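Q: Give me the 3D complex with adenosine-5'-triphosphate.
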Amino acid sequence: MSAPVLKIDELVTEFTIRGQKVPAVRGVSLEVKKGKTLVVLGESGSGKSVMLRSIMRVLPRGAHLSGSITYNGDNVLDKSEAEMRRLRGNWISMVFQDSLSAMDPLFRVGEQVGENIREHRRFPKTTIRDQVIRLFGEVGIPSPAARTRSYPHEMSGGMRQRSVIAMALSNTPDILLADEPTTALDVTIQAQILSLFKQIQREYGMTMILVTHDIGVAVEMADEIAVMYAGKVVEYGDAKQVLGAPAHPYTQGLIAATPQKGKRGRLQVIPGQPPAITAMPGGCAFASRCRYATERCRKEMPPHTQLAGGHMTACYKTEDGQALAQLVRQ
Ligand SMILES: Nc1ncnc2c1ncn2[C@@H]1O[C@H](COP(=O)(O)OP(=O)(O)OP(=O)(O)O)[C@@H](O)[C@H]1O
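A: Here is the predicted complex, encoded as structure tokens.
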């Protein structure tokens, strides 16, 4: 089995809200293997983006990080800001949902991609220009040489997202972090961008962490899946296991709420809302929405239970289920 390229251990990310430290990420441990895609799945507000931004250390002032994020044997959290600048956009790159705000409206897109190369490499101007044109061609932008001279607002959403991807790839990073990279795009463009990611991954052997709330994207892209709820990973494992035999009631609910090909009938929406980070309950944060919840779930946070094949879940139902299975076997 290949070693993890990136390993996150007990990551806690806190914000200061009205003078109080409030965690948005509450002890996340994850790893991603070379050339593989880890999809982080969960509803809005579950802490997916904050977790991804914690890896890059691009968080608002006052945010506090603890735990460890190991990349190339070093803890990213121990690096100086100068070391982080060398890492960002060079070894680890990020693509955000909103391509318009990812680009400066005042500069031509080609210049912005070129600038990202110049920041990290001492290449002559003409080499950089050629590289930008090559990158634009690679990400499927038609007439790449002409397009490098466009301003962001002159491009369609899909083309602009392609140029953001070109920027993220410009220094052939080891790891690409993508935060809802297709959410703002219409369905056909979404499919094109996802297949572009796959193609790039094959060609560059790149490792990816992709954040999404869309199970369809997870089905399409994931080697492994981490399901996040209220700042914690509640289920983690091989994509086929997590999607095919979801163990956590939240994952089961997410899947039941997703339209499936060839299946008719009403979708089962998960009732209620996730708790706000300022009002986190003591036990399992999903308990108030879970039809299996017991008193114990409301009082104590269930520990991680290992299932077969590295599949993990944090739910007393599974733990009790396993205990029952053991009793039956005895
Ligand atoms: N700068 C901040 N200050 C205070 N709270 C924040 C800050 N940024 C994010 N949060 C809170 O942290 C929680 C997690 O947010 P996050 O953006 O990671 O969720 P998400 O799962 O990525 O959802 P979405 O898909 O809506 O972005 C939310 O409750 C959010 O309000």
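A quick observation: The mean pLDDT is 89.
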